[in-house]
Write a structure and sequence with these properties.
- The protein contains five helices and four strands; from the N terminus they run H-E-E-H-E-E-H-H-H.
- It has 146 residues and is α+β, with helices and mostly antiparallel strands.
- It has helices at residues 3-12, 67-75, 97-101, 113-126, 131-143; strands at residues 27-38, 41-52, 82-87, 90-91.
- A four-stranded antiparallel sheet has the order 2-1-3-4, with helices on one face.
- It is globular and about 50 Å long.
């Protein structure tokens, strides 16, 4: 074990074990009758969804339908004012940040501009055919966010 890992454990104490992988078909994420409010308006009201291990779930709807709000609520990034979101059968609010990080990953649709710049620089560095192609690719990546 590296000294960095040992120091990390000494600094932060309790190290939670990695979660067991759920069996295919197990309910891993469930929202029951959730309501989400933004700016005093109910964006979602009475929404329920159940996600099972091994499933692929697609949210489809027009702009402003609440797709991103639902995902934010399911990830714990948007408070739910009514109803409940469970991860592996436990209320989302009961999980520690590290335990949630071990169970889900979130890539927000709006990333800071410095992240986009770092991504473009990184991508440009890895492209081999030449600086012109790298610059064009980086420009194209940045234009996707505008």
């Amino acid at each position: 074990m590296s000294s960095l890992v040992r120091n990390w454990r000494e600094l932060f104490g309790r190290v939670t074990p990695e979660p067991e992988s759920p069996a295919v078909g197990d309910v891993t994420l469930e929202a029951r009758d959730i309501t989400v409010e933004r700016g005093g308006r109910h964006i979602l009201e009475g929404v329920s969804i159940e996600v099972r291990a091994g499933e692929v779930v697609v949210l489809v709807g027009p702009n402003g339908a609440g797709k991103s709000t639902l995902l934010a609520a399911l990830a714990g990034d948007q408070p739910v004012i009514a109803g409940r979101v469970d991860v592996e059968g436990t209320d989302l609010t009961q999980w520690s940040p590290i335990d949630m990080a071990r169970r889900r990953a979130v890539l927000p649709k709006n990333t800071p501009s410095d992240f986009r710049s770092a991504l473009a620089r990184s991508f440009a560095w890895d492209v081999r055919p030449g600086p012109e192609l790298a610059e064009q690719t980086a420009t194209a990546l940045l234009s996707l966010r505008r």
